[in-house]
Amino acid sequence: MAIDFSDICYLKNPDSITLKADYTQFLLSLCGPTVIDITHEDSEQWYVITTLLHGNEPSGFIALHQWLIQEERPQNVNLRFIICSVEAAQYQPIFSQRFLPGGEDINRCFNSEKQTNYNQRAHLIEDAIKEVSPVLVVDMHNTSGSSPAFCVSAHMNKQHLKLASFFCDNLILSHISLGALMEITIDCPVITLECGGCTDIQANKVAYEAITTLALGVDINNSHKQTIKVIHHPMRLVLAEDIDVSFSLEDQGEDGVTIIENIEQFNYGLCHAGQILGWSDNEGLSNLKLLDEYKNNVIDDYFYFEDNRLIAACDFQIFMATKQRYIAQSDCLFYITA
Ligand SMILES: [Zn+2]
């Protein structure tokens, strides 16, 4: 399938025929990145909700389809939905690919001077967001592993906090620049909503409730739905170059790094000092890098290596842990905050 990276489709107030009978048929009917505008004739205000930047993170899309077929209309606001990596999501079996084989992770292609196809598409999406001068942007994802919902933001002011508080209890403030959509320069709050893992039953519900909440209109200047905990200074645990990772409940004596198989459980609670998180070959901690916001490797401050075991050196919180080997290898194993 040849992909047109210079095009984006537009739908305005689509009818039930366009929306098809279910979200699978609707997904398969799309021809590429698609903007769906649901308008409100008495309002000039726009909210933008993006989803499916990652083709294997369907909760936002499923929730959007569910919301659209009920023919709900927003109150006092116009909604612009942008369905991004349609081709990756359509690749069979559907919702199995973060990005197309041989392609790039588009959520690493924003704010970049590079001229690849995926950078071009990131620009198109950014332009489609800015076209309506929105008052807020919410980018919906699923975590790679099972996880409670949380928000992530590259900036923080009262509006970011209030916006996130409509959806979850935790906001991670991340200054790590990766080229993610939430890093774009725009004069309104942009947050990422991680709805939970795509196999977690609650994730579609989180996404659906986020859409219904936004459709009712949120006042991010005055209302504050619930208290929100801000988590600062996340650090990314990545493999050193050319190091393999596997997952197991015990040390199998593999080369590279073995991460404890139940690592996703740590997305739900604190990891205490002394916890064994995996095993390493004789290269020990040099098989891993823990990168702070300045891309310094601070692995020795948070982990130690003893009898081939990788052990937490202090209490910290783990999030976005996944046992999907491909993500662990190509993106990161997990994030921690102390
Ligand atoms: Zn994602």
UniProtKB/TrEMBL annotation:
Residues 49-207 form the Succinylglutamate desuccinylase/Aspartoacylase catalytic domain. The keyword Heme does not apply. InterPro entries: AstE_AspA_cat (IPR055438). This is Succinylglutamate desuccinylase/Aspartoacylase catalytic domain-containing protein. SUPFAM superfamilies: Zn-dependent exopeptidases (SSF53187). Its cofactor is Zn(2+). Pfam families: AstE_AspA_cat. The keyword Metal-binding applies. Keywords: Hydrolase, Metal-binding, Zinc.
